[in-house]
Amino acid sequence: MTRPLIAEHERSTDVVASLAVTLDGDVCRPDGAVDYLDKYPLDDFDFSAWADRVGALVMGRTS
Predict the structure, then answer these.
(1) Contacts of 34 (CB under 8 A, 6+ apart)
(2) In this structure, are residues 27 and 34 in contact, taking their beta carbons and an 8 Å threshold?
(3) Are 19 and 54 in contact (CB under 8 A)?
(4) Is 37 helix (H, G, I), strand (E, B) or coil?
(5) What is the pLDDT of residues 1-60, one digit of tens each?
(6) For FRET with 37, which of 3, 11, 16, 23 sits at 20 to 30 Å CA-CA?
């Protein structure tokens, strides 16, 4: 008797990556500031809607 690879009652999970990457490898300034982002209105990003859909968040050790 063989089992199906995925049981009918199991749900699939979406994995979505959202990365902050720069050419010099530094996402923030040495003091931790990200003031270069201030020129972009927060409304453009709809962070609250994005955060409502996040089940897990992984961050780097230096940022």
Answers:
(1) 27, 28
(2) yes
(3) no
(4) helix
(5) 666 666 666 667 778 887 777 888 778 888 888 888 888 877 767 878 888 888 888 877
(6) 16
Contacts of 46-54 with CB under 8 Å at 24 or more apart are 50/18
CA gap 20, 26 in Å, rounded: 9
Distance CA 15, CA 19 (A): 13
- pLDDT value at residue 7: 62
Instruction: Give CA–CA dist 41/45, Å, rounded.
Output: 8
What's the whole-model pTM score? 0.40
Model pLDDT, residue 9 = 63
